[in-house]
Amino acid sequence: SSDTATGGYVGGGFKGGTYLGPLPNASGVSRNNDDENDDRQRQQPSSIEQLQQHPYDHSHIAMTYVAICTLLALGDDLSRIHKTAILQTLKALQKEDGSFVAISSNNRNPESATSSAGEGEDKTTVEEKVDDDCDLRFMYLTIAIWYLLTDQNNKSSNNNNNDKDPYINIQSATSYILSCVSYDGSIGLTPGREGHGGSTFCGTASLHLLGTLDASMARRELRGWKEDLIRWCVMRQRSLPKREEKENEEELISQNGYYYHDWDKYAAGMQGRPNKLQDTCYSYWIGGTLHMMNESHVLDGWALRDYVLTCQSPYGGFGKVVGANPDLLHSFYTLCWLAMSRDQGCCEEEYDDEDDNGGGGRIC
Amino acid sequence: MDFATLSDVTPLPQNDGPVTPVCSIAYTSTFIKSFDYLRALLKADERSERAFDLTTQCLKLNPANYTVWHFRRRCLIALSGDGDGDDGSGCGGGGTIDVDRIEKDLEWTDNLGGTNPKNYQLWYHRRALLEFRFEGKSVRESEEEAALLLSVAQKELEYVDKILEDDSKNYHAWSHRQWIIRTLDNPTLWSTEIQYSHSKILSDPRNNSAWSQRWFALHEGSTIATDSSKTSTILSLEKAKEEANYALSGAKVDPYNESPWRYLIGIVMEQRRRARRAEDDADAEHLAESSELVRESIKEIREMKRSMEHPLQPLPSEGGVSVSLLSALVDLLEIFADERESSEEAKALFGELAVEDPVRRKYWRRREREISKKILLVV
C-alpha cells in the first residue's frame, strides 16, 4: 500500500509552464486520491489546495532541478517550496533497478513505481518499460535535487550503506550507476552503452553526491576503476605538439609566475569520446568530473583555457567550437569550468596534491 | 494543417509570466497558433484524429517537445482498435496501437528525423512504438511469431544502419541497436551484432562506438560491475585471447588509434578481475592464465614499439611515438608492479610520455612519482 503515513505525494516538483492554469498551486503539490481523508492533509498549511487530476499537468524532474537551481542562484532560501512533496515524489520516481524516471504523473500508481517483486499486476506505463527517461541524466537531476533539499552538505559526508534514506534507495541508485561503467573506465548513459563525457559526469557526480563514490571505487569488481576513470578523462584532452627545443624563452610571457603560451598554438580542448572532436562543453563534463575527485591538477588547465577562449564569440558567450555561434549551453558550461579552473592546481605546473583539500565537490 | 477543423476550439495561450519575460523566444505566428490550439486540446485531453493531426503540425515546428510526443502516443492508442481514451489513464497496460499505425508512424518519424538524427524524443518514440509491437510477445508462442518479431527487429536495425551511414558515431543510433537486441534477446541478433561491429570497425577503425558495440555484443549487454549472477558472460580465457589478438591487429592498422588499445586493456583487465572475484584468495589458476595473457600482450606491444622506432621503417604519417601504445604498455606493466623489472620499465616510459605527450605531462609525472614509490617498496 502507499505510504499514507507520509501523505504519499507523487506529483511534487515543478512543471515547465503554467498554461494549464493555476493548478497545482505555486509550490507544485499534487496528491494521490487515496489521501483525501488523511488527517495529515488537513494539517497542511491552508494555502495548499486540493487539486484536480489532469493527465498532462505533471512535474518533470528537469524542470524541478532547474527551478530549484534558479531559485538558489537568485538568492532564494527555498522556504516557499514544498520540499517534502518533492522528496516524496523522488521516491515514487525510482525504479526497481535504482534508476529514476523523469515524469511524476498524477495518474501513476505510486505502488507500481516502487513495488518489489510479487505485488501482482504490473501497473507501470509503457514509458517506464523503455530505457529512456531513466538514464543517468535523470539520475543526476534527481540526486542533485535530493542533495539540495535534504541539505546533505551539512550532514556527514559518508553515506553508510546501512543508513536508509527515507526518500531514495541509495544502494540501488549506486548499483545502477555502476552498471553503466564501461570497460575503458568511462560511464555510459545506460548499461552497456559507450562511455561519454556527459554521462561520465552525471554518473560520477551522482555517486559523489550520494556519498558512495569512494566505496564504489573500492569494490572488488571495480578494482582499478578510479585510475581508469582518471586516465580516460585525461586522455580526452587534445594532444599538443612538443615544444620546439630552441623555443625563445622571451616568447613566453610570465603572468603571476605562470608562463602564458601563444594564444592558440598550445590550445587543447576536450572531446566527449575517443576519436571525436573537441567541444567547449566537455571542459565542464570532463574537467568537472576530475574536479569532483580532486584530480584537476592532472589537466593542462592553461591549454584548456586557451581553447575555450578561442571559442569565445565577438558577441559574447561561447560556442561549441572555434567560429561557432554562441549558445546558452556552451556559455554556461564553459563559464562553470573556468570558475573551477582556479582550483586544485589545474593551471599550475607544480602542485602538491597532498596539501590541498579545498575546491573539490563544489556544486555549480 | 487545416485549422478549420478546430474552429470550435478556443486557443489557449502560453503564459510567460506576469511581467515582461526575460529572454523570450521569438515564435512565428504559425508556431503560436499551432501551439495555442494544442494547449487547448491538451487541457481537454481530447484524443482524436484532429488532435493527432495537430501533433503532426506541432512536431514539425518543434520535434523536441516531449509533451506533444506523449500526447501523440495517447492519440494513437485512442484511435486504435480497443483504445481506452475515455478513462483518462492511457496507461500502456490498457491499450495498444494498431500495427499499421505503428508502421506509418515509424515512417513518419523517419521523415521527421531527417534533419534531427540526434533528437532524443524521436528515438524514444521509435522505441515506444516498437515496445507496443513487441509487447506481450516475449514468451514466444510460435516459431512464426518469433520469426515475425525477428524480421521487425531486423528491419529496424537496417533503419539504424542507414542513420549510421550518415554519422557512424551517432550515440542515439548505437544505443537504439542495443535496445532492440536486448529487448528481443535473440541469439541470432547477439551474434550478428558482433559481425556488424566488425564491419564498422573495418570501415573505420577509429570508430570508438563500433569497438564499444563489439564489447556489448560479446558480453550480451552485461557490464563490468553487473551482478555476479551474470558471470557467465565474462569471456573465457580462450575468447579473451582471441579478442586481445583482434585488438592488437586493429592497433597495428593504426597504432595512434586509442580505441583498440583500450579495448585490449579492457579484455585483459576483465580476466584479471575475474581471477580475483572470489573472496580474498585469488583463483590461482585463473590468475596464472591471465598473467600469461598480460605477458604475451606486453611482448607484442614491445615488438610494435620497436618496429615503429626502427630507422628504416617508414613511420606512420603522424610521426613520433604513439601515446596510446605507450599508455597501454604501462598499464600492462603496472599489473606486475611488484616485479622490479616491470616497474623500472614503466617508470622509464612515464618519463618518455611526459616529454612526448606534453598536454598530459602533469599526469604522466604523477604516475612516475607513484611508481617510484612502489619501486622503493619493492627493494
In short:
Chain A is mainly alpha-helical and 364 residues long.
Question: What is this structure's SSE topology?
Answer:
The complex is a heterodimer of chains A (364) and B (379).
Chain A: H1 39-43, E1 59-60, H2 61-73, H3 83-93, E2 103-104, H4 110-114, H5 126-129, H6 136-149, H7 170-178, H8 197-210, H9 213-217, H10 225-235, E3 253-255, E4 258-260, H11 281-292, H12 301-310, H13 328-340
Antiparallel strand pairs in A: 1-2, 3-4
Helix pairs in contact in A: 2-6, 6-8, 7-8, 8-11, 11-13
Chain B: H1 29-44, H2 49-61, H3 66-79, H4 99-113, H5 120-134, H6 143-166, H7 171-184, H8 187-203, H9 208-218, H10 237-253, H11 258-276, H12 284-309, H13 323-333, H14 340-356, H15 361-378
Total strands of chain A: the figure is 4
- Global mean pLDDT of chain A: 76
The oligomerization state is heterodimer
Category from helices, strands and their pairing of chain B: mainly alpha
Order of helices and strands of chain A: HEHHEHHHHHHHEEHHH
**Cα-based radius of gyration of chain A, to the nearest Å:** 23 Å
* Total helical elements of chain A: 13
Could you state the order of secondary-structure elements of chain B as H and E? HHHHHHHHHHHHHHH
Task: Indicate the structural class of chain A.
Answer: mainly alpha
Please tell me how large the radius of gyration of chain B is. Answer: 28 Å
Helix content of chain A: 25-40%
Description:
- Helix content of chain A is 35%, strand content 3%.
- Chain A is built from 13 helices and four strands.
- Chain A has helices at 39-43, 61-73, 83-93, 110-114, 126-129, 136-149, 170-178, 197-210, 213-217, 225-235, 281-292, 301-310, 328-340; strands at residues 59-60, 103-104, 253-255, 258-260.
- In chain A, α2 (61-73) packs across α6.
- The model of chain A is unreliable at 1-7, 23-52, 106-132, 253-261 and 356-364 (pLDDT under 50).
- Chain B is 65% helix and 0% strand.
- Chain B has helices at residues 29-44, 49-61, 66-79, 99-113, 120-134, 143-166, 171-184, 187-203, 208-218, 237-253, 258-276, 284-309, 323-333, 340-356, 361-378.
- Chains A and B meet through α5 and α10 of A and α1, α3, α5, α7 and α9 of B.
